[in-house]
Amino acid sequence: QSLKTIFERASVATEIGVRKRMLTMRCAESDKLITHFLAFDKLVRELKACGAETNDRMLVVSLMITLPKRYDMVVTALETIEPEKLTMELVRSRLLDHESKTSNHVDTSSDNVVMYGDGSAMKFKCYFCKKR
């Protein structure tokens, strides 16, 4: 009986520690999502190992809280989905789709610029009118 009491207390303390790490976990702007998902999954496994009750909705919400601002549009879109249809697989696939689209996006704002200068470097002579 005393062993059960000791291990239950340790289990509760472990659960509190893991939940605290999960709540303070943040994905940096420069981090890849797959790396973040692996770290998140490790915490989920630790929660389950200490006997904590988890459900898909709680895990989805916890994952979305950890994301950086660049995923705010995706999170907002996911918030409109019915809670019963919002699964971890759906959330991850949408987030990974967004990451691949934004990482493959090439800045085309300078495509139309041929050359730019302030005009002070060199003066050219016109071969037609002979002026500089």
Q: Topology as H/E string? A: HHHHH
Q: What's the number of domains?
A: 1
Return Rg in Å.
27 Å
Shape estimate: elongated
Describe the main β-sheet briefly: none
**How many helical stretches?**
5
Secondary structure tally: strands: 0
The overall pLDDT average reads 84
> N- to C-terminal separation?
99 Å
Helix content: 55-70%
Percent strand equals under 5%
Structural class: mainly alpha
Q: Which segments are poorly predicted (pLDDT under 50) over 5 or more consecutive residues?
A: none
Protein name: Copia protein
Explain what you see.
With 132 residues, the chain is mainly alpha-helical. It has one domain (2-101). Helices cover 57% and strands 0% of the residues. The chain has 5 helices and no strands. The longest helix is centred in the first third of the chain and has 23 residues, at 2-24. The model has no long low-confidence stretch (mean pLDDT 84).
Blueprint (SSEs and pairs):
Blueprint: H1 2-24, H2 33-49, H3 56-65, H4 72-79, H5 88-104
Please summarize what this structure is.
The protein is built from five helices and no strands. It is an all-alpha fold.
Keywords:
132 residues, Copia protein
